[in-house]
Write a structure and sequence with these properties.
five-stranded parallel sheet; alpha/beta; two-stranded antiparallel sheet
Length: about 180
């Protein structure tokens, strides 16, 4: 004699059977693109490029403004200007993202850019790649980044030209160009 109990299947609103979600299951969070600048203002080219890629790939964006000189001896004037510029840039980026239906989070960080990128990639499990703004040296960042790094290179006319990917995970190959 079998003592197991039979259970009726769960039914949805239209009386169709469905499986109950397992404990701990939750909707998958979209991956992130990490957009990094060392300026209070992120360049509009980086904003546009990152928004276009995020829209096509259905990713979220984590925009990080890195203050590389937090202890500059000017009695905090530089830090206040940096914070004001960051808020202004965040409003612009948020406005552009909202009109396209892309989620953007903003953070202000201090320190070396390569260290901030490394820390962000390990703190956020779903960062797929990094887009860096002008003024950030690609070779320095790519050495410590656990994910591919893409600089946005603009021409004199203001249009994006080629994008170069650098990753340190492969053996023997340091750089790969995605442009012809």
């Amino acid at each position: 004699m079998n003592n197991s109990k039979a259970t009726a299947p769960l039914l949805d609103d239209e009386n169709r059977p469905h499986h109950a979600p397992a404990m701990g299951d939750r909707p998958k969070e979209r991956p992130f693109i990490l957009a990094v600048t060392r300026n209070g203002h992120m360049s509009e080219h980086v904003m546009e490029y990152t928004l276009n890629v995020a829209l096509r790939m259905q990713y979220n964006i984590l925009a990080v403004h890195v203050d590389t000189l937090p202890f500059f001896r000017d009695r905090g004037r530089r830090g206040k200007l940096f914070a004001a510029a960051m808020r202004e840039s965040a409003r612009l980026f948020q406005s552009k993202a909202q009109s396209r239906g892309v989620r953007v989070e903003h953070l202000g960080e201090v320190g070396k850019i390569s260290g901030v990128i490394d820390r962000m990639c390990h703190a956020r499990r779903r960062i797929e790649f990094v887009v860096i703004d002008k003024g950030i040296r690609l070779a320095d960042v790519a050495k410590r980044s656990p994910v591919p790094v893409f600089p946005v290179i603009t021409t004199h006319s203001g249009h994006s030209s080629k994008t170069i990917s650098h990753t340190t995970q492969g053996k023997g190959v340091f750089a790969m160009s995605t442009a012809s």
